[in-house]
Specification:
The chain has 354 residues and is of the alpha+beta class. Among the domains are: 167 residues, no CATH class; 76 residues, Thrombin, subunit H, CATH 2.40.10. Helix content is 18%, strand content 34%. It contains three helices and 21 strands. The strands form five sheets. Strands 1, 2, 5, 7, 8, 9, 10 and 12 form an eight-stranded mixed β-sheet that branches. Strands 3-4-13-14-15 form a five-stranded antiparallel β-sheet. A four-stranded antiparallel β-sheet has the order 17-16-18-21. The protein is elongated.
Length: 354
């Protein structure tokens, strides 16, 4: 009996297909996981970079503005002035003649500060060479250099804390006289010979703060109307922290230096009176920290550490790391933050005429 050979067919079995499918799915999962992690890290790095850029931009703008503080505000004794101006139907009819004023935020929240400077070229003030009563007409000065119609000017008499802000209506060069516009400010107040007349030009008075939308805001004061005009400087800014820097050494100093950092005004000259002109004269610098938040929420638990900055701790000018409160932000621990800080010298204070 003859046997017929059976041809055997070879190929992929069901088991082979299952193994291949398992390997492919595993490879796909690994690739997807790597892609997701890479994308998350890329977004985190991009968010951190955005926060760093926003903080650097904000700090540069604020530092530049602080360096303008005190420009052209007149002799040192003018810093105890309360300047009165026409109300113009709005508030702010008077303002303190201070180069920088810091208002500490509630419960460690963002600080607010104002910067005051003259918009005119800084020059020694003119002096009255005849008594002048406000509202009485022209005032006679020892010089009218740089004064022109439309400028604002402040009149400061020794020992007098109230100073009128008057607008120049016209200038008579040959007669060395200036006629202020009609004003009811400090009506009939008499200023004696030698009183300082400070040319302010266009007043530069600005306020900086952080709003609830994490934006750094600037408000520009219009002296004519008393209105504040608001604009945004930078996004993603969640806090400003600031300190004054004083030379608190007793007696006159030939080489000014910051020896004390403080959140508030102090009796820097040890006279027993806090916040007088001599104390403001000893204000030499401002420490400032800008806190920016990344737009990218951090992965994992909301347990981020609160940011810190260097603050003064005693009259010796020493610094220590201090936690910045972010309790005004909801879920603040779920985000990444960047802190940039600087010490800004107030050069107009250092160069001020005595």
């Amino acid at each position: 009996m003859r046997c017929q050979a059976v041809t055997r067919q070879c190929g992929l079995s069901l088991a082979d297909l299952m193994v291949g499918l398992a390997i492919g799915m595993t490879a796909t999962l690994v690739i997807l996981n790597v892609a997701v992690m890479f994308n998350a890290r890329g977004r985190m790095a991009g968010g951190n970079a955005d926060a760093s850029i926003n903080a650097a931009h904000a700090l540069a703008l604020l530092a530049r503005e602080l360096r303008m503080a005190g420009n052209g505000l007149g002799p040192v004794d003018a810093l105890d002035c309360t300047v009165h101006r026409e109300p113009g139907g709005k508030a702010e009819a008077s303002l303190a003649w201070r180069p920088v004023q810091i208002v500490q935020g509630k419960d460690g929240g963002p600080d607010t500060f104002t910067v005051l400077a003259s918009g005119a070229q800084a020059m020694p003030p003119a002096r009255l060479i005849a008594p002048y009563a406000t509202g009485s007409g022209a005032m006679v000065l020892d010089t009218t250099i740089e004064l022109q119609a439309g400028d604002l000017m402040i009149v400061k008499a020794a020992g007098m804390a109230d100073c009128p802000m008057l607008k120049v209506q016209s200038v008579s060069i040959g007669a060395y006289s200036v006629r202020p516009a009609v004003s009811g400010v400090l009506q009939d107040r008499v200023f004696g010979i030698g009183s300082a007349v400070i040319n302010v030009g266009k007043l530069r008075y600005r306020r900086y703060s952080v709003d609830a939308s994490q934006q750094l805001q600037t408000e520009v004061f219009d002296a004519a109307t008393g209105a504040w005009m608001t604009s945004t400087l930078a996004d993603g800014i969640v806090s400003l922290q600031m300190q004054y820097g004083f030379d608190a050494r007793r007696g006159a100093q030939l080489s000014p230096q910051v020896t004390s950092w403080s959140d508030t005004m102090i009796d820097a000259d040890g006279s027993g009176q806090e916040g007088d002109a001599a104390d403001w004269r000893r204000l030499l610098a401002v420490r400032i920290a800008v806190v920016a938040r990344s737009p990218q929420r951090r992965a994992g638990n909301c347990d981020a550490d609160a940011p810190k900055w260097q603050t003064g701790i005693d009259s010796g000018g020493r610094l220590q790391a201090t936690t910045i409160s972010l309790s005004h932000l909801p879920d603040w621990g779920c985000w990444h933050y960047r802190v940039l800080q600087a010490e800004v010298p107030l050069r107009n204070q250092l160069w001020r005429e005595e």
